[in-house]
Amino acid sequence: MDDEPDEAVEITRRTQHAAPTDEAVRQAIAAVFAGESIEAYEVSVALVDDAEIHEVNRRFLQHDYPTDVVTFNLSSDDDLLEGEIVISCQYAAAEAEKYQWPAEHETLLYVIHGALHLVGYDDHEDEDRLTMRRLERVYLEQVGLEPPESHRHLDAPQTERGAAR
User: Fold this and answer.
1) Model confidence over 94-152: pLDDT tens digits?
2) What is the enclosing helix (H) or strand (E) of 41?
3) What is the DSSP string of 52-112?
4) Collapsing DSSP states into helix, strand and coil, what is residue 27?
5) Which helix (H) or strand (E) holds 114?
6) 3-class SS at 44?
7) For residues 81 and 77, what is the distance between their CA atoms, to the nearest angstrom?
8) Which of 39, 88, 112, 118 has a Cα-to-Cα distance from 161 of 20 to 30 A?
9) Residue 157 — very low, low, confident or very high, per pLDDT cuts 50/70/90?
10) What 8-state DSSP symbol labels residue 147?
11) Which letter does DSSP use for residue 122 in this model?
């Protein structure tokens, strides 16, 4: 029996838009899960366009519009985190242009955001949204990225990690 964590990330690309490398996606997920003490996980990441995420959003969440990221926690027990993250690289490209940073970086922000949702964070209330933004900044910095303008006003103290689920 080995002591290594059970980590599996499957990445599917169904987009013509710029997307980060598989290694960058895996690194971002690993940073979040390590920071949130998740040792065993199986996660699939689908990099898609607006039309596909619109359909996912409509079909599963009854929201009739494209969005940035949709997550599904499929875990059936506490020992293994299982989930799916669906990200629109087309949406990321449009947002990246607004914040003047690469679309691949915006997509990694969505990877981190989706991973935070999988570990139990929510962003429906203002306080929870602020916690998620701070954590996104922490994990962006851990993978070597300068946060976009939309996140630069936030402090990123390490004490925020794991603060509110």
Assistant:
1) 999 988 899 999 999 999 999 999 999 998 888 998 999 999 999 999 999 987 766 65
2) strand 41-48
3) HHHHHHHHHH---S--SEEEEE---SSS-EEEEEEEEHHHHHHHHHHHTS-HHHHHHHHHH
4) helix
5) helix 103-118
6) strand
7) 8
8) 88
9) very low
10) P
11) -
**Which phi and psi angles does 85 have, rounded to 5°?**
-125, 125
SS3 of 17-48: the string is CCCCCHHHHHHHHHHHHHHCCCCCEEEEEEEE
CA 164 to chain centre: 17
Give me the pLDDT at residue 17, please. 93
Cβ contact 84:9 at 8 Å? no
Residue 90 amino acid letter = Q
Mean pLDDT score of the chain, rounded to an integer? Answer: 87
Report the DSSP beta bridge partners of residue 81. 41
Tally the residues of the chain: 165
Neighbours of 52 (CB within 10 A): 17
Global pTM value: 0.86
Sign of CA dihedral 58, 63, 64, 66: negative
**Which one, of 92, 90, 106, lies nearest residue 24 by Cα?**
106
Radius of gyration in angstroms for the set of CA atoms belonging to the chain, rounded to a whole number: 15
d(CA 59, CA 50): 14
pLDDT mean over 78-93? 95
